Amino acid sequence: MEIKKLKFLEGAAEAEGLTVIIDVFRAYTTAAYLFANQAENIFIVSKIKTAKQLKKKLKNSVLIGERRGIKISEFDFNNSPYFISCHNFADRNIILSTSAGTKGIIAAQNAAEIITGSFVNITAVADYIKSKDPQLVSLVAMGNNGVTEAAEDNLYIDQLTRILENKKTFSKAEIKKRLRSPAGDRFFVEETQSEMPAEDFEYCLKINKFNFVIKAEKVDSDIYQLKRKEGD
Ligand SMILES: O=C(O)[C@H](CS(=O)(=O)O)OP(=O)(O)O
């Protein structure tokens, strides 16, 4: 199995084969908590305009998203796993638009298959890849805003590669320690607790809390639907 390691939006556009779009802080952690809290459908879009248009078409829809970490005005929730985990989304159609993660899936137009990456289901993702045993896997670290390095996405690639290659992995404690600062500093700013609460750091690093994989399926060029696939 060849493992191609890519970065940012330009890397997503180069992804081929079975592709993992990685966004630990916070989009693909949030998506996992949404499914865990009974969300019926999750649609992801890159543009705010598309999100608002889709809301008009879907019943019981909820708009979730941020730009540079701050909730988009007129949206219902920020992209926060902690705030999301406090609500039940049964029968709701979720529309999610974020700075990096959701844009990455939309950019990965050459991927044969897309799944999402975050620490809350890293073992399920590794098992899924091993079970498919593809010739080529693309791992895309989306970074901050899809354009600059994010330690958490890079560490995820490192850990996932180690699992796939049966090498020694980092412990949960080591992962938390490495990511607390500077990467995690954004969650400990007093003035922005209503947007990026301290709990998000913990929730993003509840490693292997979930045993499902999240697949992204194309609806049209700017809309993908996320689907939950249970692990074995
Ligand atoms: O919601 C977030 O914290 C991030 C903001 S940024 O890209 O790290 O600036 O969005 P996401 O798309 O989840 O990375």
TrEMBL record:
Which keywords does this chain's UniProt record carry?
Hydrolase, Magnesium
Q: Which residues form a coiled coil?
A: none
Q: Name one Pfam family in it.
A: 2-ph_phosp
Which cofactor names does the annotation list?
Mg(2+)
EC no. given is 3.1.3.71
Q: Does the keyword Hydrolase apply?
A: yes
InterPro entries recorded: ComB-like, ComB-like_sf
One GO MF term: 2-phosphosulfolactate phosphatase activity
The reactions it catalyses are:
(2R)-O-phospho-3-sulfolactate + H2O = (2R)-3-sulfolactate + phosphate
Enzyme class at the top of the EC tree: hydrolase
- Family membership: Belongs to the ComB family.
Q: Which PANTHER family match?
A: 2-PHOSPHOSULFOLACTATE PHOSPHATASE-RELATED
Q: What is this protein called?
A: Probable 2-phosphosulfolactate phosphatase
Whose protein is this, by species? Halanaerobium kushneri
